[in-house]
Structures are given as structure tokens and as C-alpha cells.
Amino acid sequence: MSNLPRILIVGHAGQVGVELQRSFFDAAELICQDRDTVDLAVPDQVCAMVRRAAPDIILNAAAYTAVDRAESEPEAAMAVNAIAPGILAEEAQRTGALLVHYSTDYIFDGSKTGPWAESDKPNPLNVYGASKLAGEEAIQQIGGKYLIFRTSWVYGPHGNNFLLTMLRMAKERDRLNIVDDQFGAPTSSIALADATRAVVAGVLVGRYGSSDSWSGLYHMTCDGSVTWYGFAQAIFERASDLLHGKVPEVRPIFSAEFITLAKRPRNSVLSNEKLFTRFGIELDSWETALDEVILRLAERKSDNTQGREL
Questions:
Q1: For 25-80, what is each residue's pLDDT tens digit?
Q2: Is 128 an active-site residue?
Q3: Nearest CA to 129 among 102, 96, 107?
Q4: Domains of the chain by residue range
Q5: Nearest 5°: CA angle at 77, between 71 and 81?
Q6: Catalytic pick from 64, 106, 128, 229?
Q7: Do residues 289 and 187 lie in contact, with contact meaning Cβ atoms separated by under 8 Å?
Q8: Rounded to whole angstroms, how far apart are CA atoms 199 and 195?
Q9: What is the CATH number of domain 6-160+187-223+268-284?
Q10: Closest by CA position to 67, among listed 125, 108, 114
Q11: What angle do CA 129, 131, 132 make, to 5 degrees?
């Protein structure tokens, strides 16, 4: 019988879930669930999933992330982002398991000029942000052993995200208009998963004391900030080889020129001071994290090319 902890990864096929599997693969017995096996909008299925798995740790990487579609599907967003996390928290508290849950910078309205702290008052501008805030509040109200990590602008080598969208659109268009008045911290799924493992590993060996002292809400993003336009420029500067030199012209525009169903915050940069002070964890700069993701994509492309040649 294994002495490793049992970890249930909810949303294992998403961009964060894939990296959590990589980061924890040698540290736990992993039980992976996704939308193909469990409908998180159905409370009974959520309960049954946890009880079958009997985990020591739940890593909830699942979410309703269609920010604009959520405006017309508020009940679906609330079911996955608010009600399901509350059920996970209840099940975790029932057995003494640790729940790790991810939230978003979009719970803030963007009005602050500096980085947002955990103590700042949330005021989401859209349904997605409101649903994620409701999920945070549900977990905090239930209590138990939990870690909520608010993160931002998540991207990586898997799933649907801004980086992969830019690379795809670069092949289809010669010019791209990208918003240049919204600021945030692009955070790679790789960095997010590795930081999660570092915190969880410390918790398991008692490095941070009891759950009464470390349970709570923390911001967890890569260091620094940039606009979507600046992020797009950085992507194309690094991805020229991946695109065979076909790099589009990138034009900065204002948010008012790019109308979306859901309103976005102008400044959603999060302060990571609390995370560092409590756990000693500090993520790389967003530029360094981007370099790593581009390298991973290049290696994957090389492997695929070699496979075809064989």
C-alpha cells in the first residue's frame, strides 16, 4: 500500500490541471476527474466524485471560464464556480482533507492604481468575476483546511488561452489589434502548478504550522505587469521560430475599441506579498515564465517533427 497522499485533481484536462498532474506525479497517488466523467453543475455528482476518491487533498482546477458567455449563462457559471466549490469544501471538511482552489483577479473592478491586496474590497464587473467571488466566499464560510489562490491571465502550452490564440491568429492574419489599457500579470500554468506543489509540500510536512494559521486566501501570480498588447508583443518576439518568421503587425487599441459582452478591469495586478511572507514562495517574472512556455512549445514541435520523420 502506498504511503503517498491521495490527491483528487478536478479539471485535470484543463491547462492548470495538466500541469498539476506533471508537478505532483511523483508526490502522490493521483485521481483525475474532468467534465467527461463528472458534471460539476450537478451537486450529487460532485459529492459522489469526492466520496469515491476519498482524497487527502483536493486540487480544484475546474472552472467555468467563458467570461463573455457567462453574461448570458449566469446560472451555469454560478453552478460550477460557486456552488461546486462549496460542495468540495463541505466534503473536504467532513473528512479533514485539504482543499486547494483557484480564483481570479476579475473579482476586482480595476479602479485601484497599485497592486490589489487580499484585504482590498472585491467589486466584480462581470458575471464570471461575481461567480468566482461567490466560490471564494462559500469556501471561507465552510472553513476547514483550505487554500484559495487568486491568480491572473493564466496561459500555458495546453488548453485555450491568450498565448495559443495569438499563435493561431498569427498564422491567419497579418495585423492584430490588441487592447493596451488593461494591466495584469500573465501567469503560466507551469509556474502556478509548481508554486502550488511547493506550498502543499510544506503543508504536508508541517512546515507552516496548523491549518488554523495557514488556511486562507492568497494571491499567486507571476511577478510584474503588462498590458495585453505588451504581452502579445512579447509572445511574438519569442515565438518567431515557431511561426517560421510570420509575425503579424500588432496595433495597440483602447478597450472602448474592442467591445465585449463582459466588462474587464483596467488594473487587475495582484500583490503577492502575503504569499511570500507566509510561505516564502515567489513566482518568476512573467517574462521568465513566458520563456519557459515558449521553450516547451518548441520542444513539443521538435518532437512532433521527429516523429513524422521516423
A1: 998 899 998 888 899 999 999 999 999 999 999 999 999 999 999 999 999 999 99
A2: yes
A3: 107
A4: 6-160+187-223+268-284
A5: 140
A6: 128
A7: yes
A8: 6
A9: 3.40.50.720
A10: 125
A11: 65
